[in-house]
Amino acid sequence: MAVVPANSLRFHVQRLPAAAGADAPDRPVVVFLHGLVVDNLSSFYCPLAVPVARSGHEVVLYDLRGHGRTERPATGYDSRTAVRDLFALLGALGLGHRRVHLVGNSYGGTLALHAALARPGLVSGLTLLEPPLGGAWVENMVDTLSAAALSLEDSPVPAELRTLRLRKAANLTAIADALLNRTSLIDDVAASRPFTPADYARLGCPALIVCGEHSELVPGARELARHAPRCELRILPDLGHDVLKESSGVLREAVLAHVAATVTATPTAAAAVRPRVGALVP
Amino acid sequence: MATDILAEITGMLVEIVGDEYLLAEEVTMKTTFNEDLALESVEFVALAELLHHRYGADVDLMGFLAEKDMDAILAMSVGELVSHIGRITRTSLARVSAGGPSASAG
Questions:
Q1: B2-97 has which CATH code?
Q2: Interface test with B, best of A13, A38, A50, A163 (most B CBs within 10 A)
Q3: Structure ipTM over 0.95, yes or no
């Protein structure tokens, strides 16, 4: 089991080597950041991580603090700590000086954007899948998480599922209960500071945002695409929030092309590059 | 050889999941990852890593998995994975015994 200590925590990490002979120190390492509570690194494995590694990039996947098979401390679920976790982990892996391309799904996309703004010299590209940005997402997310927390608190369901030998469901509810009722995760999300247009304007690296046509997160993504100088928004028809699971073929091609296009990209100050908004037809 | 590989994979599963959680009485070639073992996706990823370390790049697990999604992977039987590893391992052995540069090294 790949357990890597970083930032006083033991992280579950998976590294996929680049296709034979393809990796080079000047090629960005592609790092994947998953979503909140019921997610972990495995969501990326088949649809994106393996194809990206086979396309010639070293890949790093890890379970975020408290998620999957990483340790679950009581505190530290704010974005600032998540960014510290990310770069401490890359340092522990000996990749502290390598440029990285961050791929984030849902809340992982929000964290990836925080990381790119915090360390512009190291993040050479972003791929954001359905990132919650702007608008009322914090309030909506906190409402949803709080309702889930209440339903799981002192619930006999996890134990009953285990008795019924429904192992996967039992594990899922147990992790959600622990994260929502016995850590600071909800309070930390509630305290999130929203991004501003000025934040978006100083995003120097190329970014691809992918949203589902029916997702309520599209307006926030449009706001980012409008203000960030090198940002492209693609809308996948007929899909909602779960673009990672529902659109693997189309998404894979879009992400591989974007990662390849950003290999030589260097972070710049906000250049006067017109943002693009387009639809990707499968 | 298949028996050896099956025993090794069983040992890896116990390492990842813990033997108290393995639902099947016994892991056989017909045991499936999802229905019989209730293996989670993140646990299969951990298994893939252990297999890569044990059998090396020749097994090309990423190539084997690249054509599948996680649902299809978890629907596999342990025997399908054993067969894939066995096939590749036999090919490697045949290459060595055919007189490649490393044959004389034993």
A1: 1.10.1200
A2: A50
A3: no
